[in-house]
Every structure is written in C-alpha cells, then in structure tokens.
C-alpha cells in the first residue's frame, strides 16, 4: 500500500484526531415516558387543600380537604374517565362537612358517576346515579402530604431555565403576550403576573405534542387576559393542547380568573385562594389552597405533559426572563452548540491549511503562504 503524501497524511491525522470526520450523530434520545405528574391530583379536576364553595359543573372528580359548600347545586363527574386514578372510583371527596341543599330543595349535588365520601353532612345527601353510594367516613386522600409534594413541585418548576421567548405586541389595538417555544419536549416561560395582566390576549405557540409550563411570578394574579389561545393540537374544544399546558403560580396567594375567561390548561396554585369567574371555565385540573367558583365550569382534561425532561441553562444561569419579557431564553442551547461546532470546524480548517502549507515547504515544492481563514459566528442566546 502506497503511503499517503505528507499533506494528505497531516490532514487525515488532524481530522481523525478531532473525531469529527468519522463521527456520526448520536441517535435522538426519546423523551422519558412520564406517569402521573401531579400525584393524587391527577385523578381530579378540582383538588383543594382547604374549603371549596362551588356551583355549576365539574366534568371530572372533585376533592377538598376542608368543607364544601354546594348548596346552590353542583354537577360532578359527568364525563367518563376510565383511566382516572381516583381511589375506588370515589369522584367526590370532602374531608370536612359537605353542605348541600335542604330536603326538598331544587338545588342539590349530583354525582353523575362514582361514589362520594365526606366527613360530615349538612343538608340532604347528594344524588348518586348508577346505583352507587355516598357515605360519611374518613378521607381516602392525604391532603397535607399531597400538598407538600405539590408545593415542592411548584418550586422545582419555577427554578427551571427558560425555554422560549416572551414578547408583548399589539394587534388591531389589542395588547398580546406571545409565548413562542421551539422545543419538541418541554417549553418553559417565566413571566410576571403584571405582564400577563397588561394584555388582552395570550398566544402560546409551541410544537404539537410539546409540554408547556408557564411560571407566573407575583403574589397576586387578577384582571388578566380573558383570551388564551394555543396554536397546536386542538381537537374541537382544545383538550389535547390543554392537557399538556400547566400554569404554575409558585408565589401567589390570590389567583382570580378574569371575567368571561376560558383558561386552557391545568392551574397549579398550591398556596393560593383561587376564584373562578361565574361565566368562566377551565379546561384542566385546578390545584388550589381554597377554591371559589360560583357558576363556573371545569372541563376534564387531565395533565398529560412530561415535567421530567432535563433542561440545561444555555448560559449556565437560571435562564429566567427579565421584567421586559422581550425574550426568555429562545433556543439558546441549540445556538450555543452550533456556535461551538462552527468554531471547532473553523479552527480545524485553519490548522489543516497550516499543516498543508507546512508539508509543502518540507518537500521543497511550491512554497505556499499559510492560508488564513475567518469565520464570524455569533451565538445569540435569545435574551435580547
């Protein structure tokens, strides 16, 4: 076998040493298979640590660790959910006293399916369909333990690095907060409550099937936008997209739904008194310290997103957005890796040129000036 010419040998040695010429891209790592992410709350549409005061409808199961005032009529568990993780198909759990309409009243609690258990009863028993029962007894849910886990989860999500941009724009005279993410697994948007409250609409644009977490900072959230739109996975009433969207309120003690608002996605507000608008609705699970919803509806869309996807801050920091919310991280990691790759290739090219020229001089042929190269790479982490 003929030996390689000096130039070729030098170039081959350089490239082989770098491992770039022979390397093949690593196969994409599939997103981890995620089970229930919200603990026992995954089986309920309303999951409350303390008291709840409700009338209207909840399509899923309802659980409250304190008292429940349903005296004006409340319909529960009307949407079939064979995969619910509620213990023994208990679709109503009240740790304290269930206050229901008086005997003969036209307003009362109706369980469309499942069974009910409550610590005490004030008024008539709830109407239970399908031959099941409602009984007094101990709660099958350990509310203090579940809320310790939920509060820890809320803090952990709040500490995630940003993945996506948060921008405020104007469209036809209306202020729009746009959340734009490109990660196919998990997009994270840190945004202040005041920023959301300043808008008439929130628009969320992420890849179809991606999980989205919106970390809303601030102790009080009220008078926010009535319209929240998602761009992907809609199936009629938007349950598919709503099932992978989580609104996290780690600091809030008060969360008030705006008038006539429809919130797609689950609400994680484990420290907050949450008040739903009488004409509003939520498509997802509501987790709250206490809950008031006089006339509002909660539609069943269990959270099916995956919160265990690891994220690395592109700049080694927390990755959270500033108050201007002009950009909350973008695709910083991808840009950083591309910049590193281009810089490495540029260095290799310059080294290869120098070796090529040096090999030529060593042979005494065609003296060449060392080649010079310049590659201008700008890595923008999306934090403009």
What does this structure look like?
Pfam families: pAdhesive_15. Keywords: Membrane, Signal, Transmembrane, Transmembrane helix. Residues 299-325, 360-384 are annotated as: Disordered. With 384 residues, this protein is α/β, with parallel strands linked by helices. Among the domains are: 148-247 and 298-330, no CATH class; 332-373, no CATH class. Helices cover 18% and strands 32% of the residues. The chain contains 5 helices and 23 strands. The strands form 2 sheets. The protein has a 6-stranded parallel beta barrel. A 4-stranded mixed β-sheet has the order 11-12-14-17, with no helix packed on it. The longest helix has 32 residues, at 332-363.
What portion of residues is helical?
10-25%
Low-confidence stretches: 7-32, 314-345, 352-357, 359-384
Number-wise, the strands total 23
Multimeric organization: single chain
**Rg to the nearest angstrom?**
28 Å
Q: Beta-strand level of the residues, as a percent range?
A: 25-35%
> Alpha-carbon distance between the termini?
57 Å
> Taking strands numbered 1, 2, ... along the chain, how are they ordered across the largest sheet?
1-3-6-4-2-23
Major pleated sheet: 6 strands, parallel, barrel
Shape: globular
């Amino acid at each position: 076998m003929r030996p390689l010419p000096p130039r070729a040998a030098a170039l081959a040695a350089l490239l082989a040493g770098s491992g770039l010429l022979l390397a093949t891209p690593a196969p994409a790592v599939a997103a981890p298979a995620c089970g229930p992410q919200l603990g026992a709350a995954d089986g309920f549409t309303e999951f409350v640590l303390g008291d709840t005061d409700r009338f209207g409808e909840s399509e899923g199961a309802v659980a409250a660790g304190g008292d429940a005032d349903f005296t004006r009529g409340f319909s529960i568990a009307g949407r079939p959910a064979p995969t619910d993780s509620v213990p023994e198909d208990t679709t109503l759990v009240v740790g304290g006293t269930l206050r229901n309409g008086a005997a003969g009243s036209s307003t009362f609690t109706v369980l469309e399916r499942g069974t009910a258990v409550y610590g005490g009863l004030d008024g008539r028993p709830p109407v239970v369909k399908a031959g099941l029962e409602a009984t007094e007894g101990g709660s099958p849910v350990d509310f203090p333990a579940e809320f310790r886990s939920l509060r820890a989860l809320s803090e952990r999500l709040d500490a995630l690095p940003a993945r996506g941009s948060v921008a405020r724009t104007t469209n036809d005279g209306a202020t729009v907060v746009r959340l734009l993410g490109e990660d196919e697994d998990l997009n994270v948007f840190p945004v202040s409550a005041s920023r959301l409250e300043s808008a008439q609409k929130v628009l969320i644009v992420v890849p179809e099937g991606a999980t989205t977490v919106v970390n809303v900072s601030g102790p009080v959230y009220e008078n926010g936008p009535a319209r929240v739109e998602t761009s992907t996975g809609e199936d009629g009433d938007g349950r598919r997209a709503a099932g992978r969207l989580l609104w996290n309120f780690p600091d809030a003690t008060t969360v008030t739904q705006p008038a006539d608002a429809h919130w797609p996605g689950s609400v994680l507000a484990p420290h907050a008194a949450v008040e739903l608008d009488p004409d509003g609705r939520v498509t997802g699970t509501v987790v709250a310290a206490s809950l008031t919803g006089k006339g509002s509806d909660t539609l069943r869309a269990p959270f099916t997103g995956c919160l265990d996807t690891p994220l690395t801050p592109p700049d080694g920091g927390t990755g959270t957005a500033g108050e201007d919310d002009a950009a909350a991280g973008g695709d910083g990691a991808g840009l950083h890796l591309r910049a590193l790759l281009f810089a490495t290739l540029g260095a290799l090219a310059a080294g290869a040129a120098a070796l090529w020229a040096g090999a030529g001089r060593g042979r005494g042929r065609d003296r060449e000036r060392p080649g010079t190269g310049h590659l201008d790479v700008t890595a923008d982490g999306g934090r403009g």
